[in-house]
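Data availability (excerpt). The following record was deposited with the supplementary files.
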Amino acid sequence: MTSPTKSAAPFHDDGNEQSDLGFGKVVVEAVRGRFINRDGTANSHKYGLGAQRAMRLYLGALNTTWPSFIAWMVGILLLVNGFFALAYSALGAGALHGTEQMRIDDPFLRSFTFSVGVFTTTGTGAMYAVGTTANWLVDLESFVGPIMLVAAFGVMIARMTRPRMRIGFSESAIIAPYEGGRGFMFRTTNLSLNELSDVHARVNLSWYEDIGGLRERNFHELELERSSVELFNLHWTVVHPITATSPLAGITPEKLAAAQAEFIIFVNAFEETFNTRVTTRTSYTWEEVRWDVKFASIFANGPDGVVAIDVERLSRTEPVGEGATRNPAPIEGSAHVAGADPH
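Predicted structure:
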């Protein structure tokens, strides 16, 4: 077990410019929603940069699922070829010759087949364009087709060679019994087949505190029972023990709600397939924290000598009794970090 990290004091005490995660005190006080969405995206927006539609399309193509990416790629290619097919059809039956051998009665289908051959540079067989306008369309499609195909396959290669990790987090964080007291916990696991190692986790608490009669939002980096694991083959329950020195000492559901707390999670790991470090993040708001429960066993029956888990049980919990974790534990005492009251 690695030694725990030290809990960071709120930025108003030590003047640490990075203790607010880089948002800045003005932004911190102005924001009323969550800072990080559950999917890890930042809950923010920048104006004045223009639409940036091409960049948004590219990033969307990188981040979407493979079925969605293939469906969109095929759909766009069919749409473009359909446009050229309509253009050829609009020129009349004499625009394309050599279609008799295809034995296709539908004029649009004949034009579409010709368009696909030009677009993909695979050839059009016996068909050929007749007339100035038809040949101009062929020339245009001969330029557009290869460019679009190269772009599509380029994005596909970028998706395949992009280092990434799929980390699954439990649907809720919990306040559960822990070593004679209470602990803030959540579970995580690797959802991909690629191997991850040297995994590090950081948990930052953002909430409102009453400091000297003033209500202000502050950040605390929570001390973890274990902040890193070398192997991540199964799952990891990340735990912050709630002790007398914890910012959460004496916390109750009512106080957590009044403080509008958000737990911001950062996980980074070494991805062994591409030999690089990758990062993911998520957050839990006070509404996504459950009380008086503990995580149920995630282990499943596997072959002899093999430890197995059931990922579908990642978020499964079981009750521990009414009021078991809603009330402060004696180990927490009456002290609180910096003498602040989070309500």
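Summary of structural features: Residues 1-18, 335-340 have pLDDT under 50 and may be disordered.
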